[in-house]
Amino acid sequence: MLRSGLPLARILKASVCILFCCCSLRAVAGPRSEPTDTGVGAKYENTRMMLRNFYCGHELRFDATGNLVSGGKPGPWTVCRDIQVEKLHLSSGKLKITGHRVYLFYDSGVKLFRDILEIESREFKKTKSYQEMMDGQRVSIEIKPVQQTDDAGIAALMSAVFYTSTEEFLQAVPKFWKSVVDPRPGVRPASPSPANGVFHPGNGVSAPVAMYSPDPDYAEEARLARFKGVVVLTATLGPDGLVHRVKITRPLGMGLDEKAVAKVLNWKFRPATKDGKPVAVDVRVEVAFNLY
């Protein structure tokens, strides 16, 4: 019912003005940023990704071209490469990725790298050590600035920070890993022989004798997981008694292989000899990791 003194045309005009003003205010405010689990980037969630350069650390910050700005440093690929992405969130010009690291051990029975959590017992999962390991696996990654928020823009950011293929990983992995992880023909180096100046002990070649061989340090991730075993290496010892080259023959994973290689490269030997003269030899080296 209309009040007296207010014509219908005037009331309609006022209503239109109020409606227009409300719409204008809404347009000025603009759309709010939403988590990418409702659209762009959702395909990456609950997916395992391979982090470029194997950066360790809990909070990693990258620029849009994939350069690390802060938060970490390169480490063993078996504990710092794989990340299980849980959530992506796009807000304020940055892409935030949260998830957890996947620690890998080498299962020599099936000759594959597997998630360490696949073999943990129920009893171990109740321990403080297990909780510390789980806390250590949490990771967040921030990439900024984000200039394109569509599928193509997010894909470019992800490919700048993560490997997009196994081939990229194989090109980046350290040389001492090549004969283990790269199955492509021609990757495995030729066996040493007297023709290239490297011998094997025996048949007139004396065995080298270790003069300085300290034990390697334990990887923290392996210690928390109570993981132990033996890394088998092939080391080339020069006529000077020093270790010139090392490759992994049978790995362990969990960051222990790099610890073994780093230490063995500093070992010193009384060199092998042939006809009374020092010669280079290739020898098998077993490095045991035990927890006491």
Verbal overview:
The chain is of the alpha+beta class and about 290 residues long. The chain folds into 2 domains: about 35-175, no CATH class; about 195-290, 2-Layer Sandwich (TolA/TonB C-terminal domain). It is about 25% helix and about 30% strand. The chain contains 8 helices and 18 strands. The protein has helices spanning about 10-30, 75-80, 130-135, 150-160, 165-170, 180, 220-225, 255-265; strands spanning about 45-50, 55, 60, 70, 75, 80-90, 95-100, 105, 110-115, 140-145, 160-165, 200, 210, 230-235, 245-250, 270, 270-275, 275-290. Strands 4-3-10-7-6-1-11 form a 7-stranded mixed β-sheet. Strands 12, 14, 15, 17 and 18 form a 5-stranded mixed β-sheet that branches. A hairpin with a 5-residue loop joins β3 and β4. The longest helix is centred in the N-terminal third of the chain and has 22 residues, at about 10-30. It is elongated, with a radius of gyration of 29 Å. It starts with 7 loop residues before the first helix and ends with a strand. Mean pLDDT is about 85; it is low at about 1-40.
Task: Summarize this structure briefly.
With 292 residues, the chain is α+β, with helices and mostly antiparallel strands. Helices cover 25% and strands 32% of the residues.
Topology:
Layout: H1 8-29, E1 47-51, E2 55-56, E3 59-62, E4 68-70, E5 73-74, H2 77-80, E6 82-91, E7 94-101, E8 104-107, E9 112-115, H3 128-137, E10 138-143, H4 151-161, E11 162-163, H5 166-172, H6 178-181, E12 198-199, E13 209-212, H7 220-224, E14 229-237, E15 243-250, H8 256-264, E16 268-270, E17 272-274, E18 277-289
